[in-house]
Specification:
442 residues; Nuclear Transport Factor 2, Chain: A; Glucose Permease (Domain IIA); 3 domains; eight-stranded antiparallel sheet; six-stranded antiparallel sheet; elongated; binds zinc ion
Length: 442
């Protein structure tokens, strides 16, 4: 099913009106964001360069198809060999004519009453257009950088069953469907170590987002990044604040400066390793060599076992040679297993969310075990890995020296979310019979 059909709009009437505004939308939107009661973006929008009236008699643009040479397109428009040579040599400093990407838009226009174009525009990429103009006796070239404006968009959502079917509010009408889809993926990525968006969301969960965009005059998005995110998942509220790294990439922290990009505790019990991860080991009970796809920690019966990262319980109970087993699913399809337990914590059952460091059970000798120990497994992409050597991307929390600046940025960012209403009470908006038939409100 398409995204569009799943999206719900806060006010149906408004969306129609917005759609009609067409190209004026961006202008209106920019004015609106300045009028909103929060500090405007400190960045000043780049003033658009004046564009000369190139397209006196515009004709439909050509798209450069795969395998099509620029020279043959130009020849098709009636340009002679000398002119084609001149244009390609003017193009060369900007772009190798042979590497013009398929799909690049080319526009032609000509003087009144003439067939052969005297103006040619080639879209090098979405942000730059090369303009060729015939001025006797030859051609000139000028590079136009497509201007953009910066705006701030704020969106809220109330989860019904999944992120895709959330009731949405806020500046929703400023987003295209594709942009909304990209936003959902980006959102899931930010919280990947905290929440599995395909499984952990519940009806009644909600989110609020503020993002900053660079928007081209045609409404397409040059770039976008989150300014602040608030997610309410059951009883917890998680907020995400971005920090720009030296490489220009964003990493996200919670409001206390802890990285949202989680890392694993190196051990689930603070005891010595009695058996390492190996592909070949003599098993004292089975009396044969077999892999040991985990690490054994020799610990007394009853020692509390901690979850090495936050995750969701996928198994909890007796499981053959494992004895009493707890299995957790974490971000990026990582699983951890805790075996031979003497007891499993009472509330640990499939579907329950646990935090890093939470006690999930107690060390024991259940299943195939010669004595009390914890057998700990780490499974990445379906393969058992040595938890001591597996390479995981890790992101430390902010240190003291950076906390003060972070708090300032955080407070500023979270203020953007204030006053963005979560659409708790939008049932009224969907009371029209046609809407109800299509998608009943439960
Ligand atoms: Zn073991």
């Amino acid at each position: 099913m398409g995204i569009r059909r799943k999206r719900k709009r806060a006010t149906q009437k408004e969306s129609g009106r917005w759609a009609k505004l067409g190209s004026l939308l961006m202008l209106a939107v920019f004015g609106l964001s300045l009028a909103l009661p929060f500090p405007p973006s400190p960045k000043i929008p780049t003033p658009p360069e004046p564009i000369p009236e190139l397209w006196a008699t515009p004709r439909p643009g050509d798209k450069l198809n795969r395998g099509m040479a620029l020279s043959s397109v130009l020849a098709g428009r009636g340009l002679d060999a000398a002119q084609i040579r001149e244009i390609t040599s003017l193009l060369r400093p900007y772009k190798d004519p042979r590497t013009l990407r398929p799909g690049a838009v080319m526009r032609f226009s000509s003087a009144p009453g003439e067939e052969i174009p005297n103006r040619i525009g080639i879209e090098l990429n979405p942000d730059s257009i090369l303009h060729f103009a015939r001025v006797a006796p030859g051609w000139t070239v000028r590079l136009e950088l497509v201007p953009f404006v910066m705006d701030t968009v704020r969106i809220s959502g109330l989860i019904e069953s999944s992120l895709w079917s959330a009731r949405l509010g806020g500046d929703l009408d400023r987003l295209g469907d594709k942009e909304f889809e990209e936003l959902v993926y980006a959102l899931a990525d930010v919280f990947a170590w905290k929440i599995d968006f395909t499984r952990d969301l519940r009806r009644g969960d909600a989110f609020r987002i503020a993002l900053e965009r660079k928007v081209r005059p045609n409404g397409s998005i040059r770039s976008r990044h989150f300014l602040a995110i608030e997610l309410r998942n059951r009883e917890r509220v998680i907020r995400a604040i971005p920090i720009t790294g030296p490489d220009g990439r964003f990493t996200y922290y919670d409001e206390d400066g802890r990285s949202l990009h989680g890392s694993f505790l190196r051990y689930p019990v603070p005891y010595r390793i009695t058996s390492h991860f190996t592909n070949r080991r003599y098993h004292p009970i089975l009396k044969r060599y077999r892999k040991h796809e985990g690490i054994d920690y020799g610990a007394p019966t009853g020692t509390p076992v901690e979850a090495t990262a936050s995750g969701v319980v996928t198994r909890a109970g007796f499981a053959g040679g494992y004895g009493r087993l707890v299995e957790l699913r974490h971000a990026r399809e990582i699983r951890t297993r805790y075996a031979h337990l003497s007891a499993i914590a009472a509330y640990i059952r499939p579907g329950v969310h646990v935090n890093q460091g939470e006690i999930i059970g107690k060390v024991g000798a259940s299943g195939l075990a010669t004595g009390p120990h914890l057998h700990y497994e780490f499974i990445l992409d379906g393969k058992h890995r040595d938890p001591l050597t597996v390479q995981l991307p890790e992101q430390p929390s902010l240190d003291r020296s950076r906390m003060e600046a972070f708090r300032r940025d955080r407070d500023k960012a979270l203020r953007l979310l204030e006053g963005v209403p979560i659409p708790y009470d939008l049932h009224v908006a969907f009371a029209e019979p046609s809407d109800r038939d299509r998608r009943p409100v439960r």
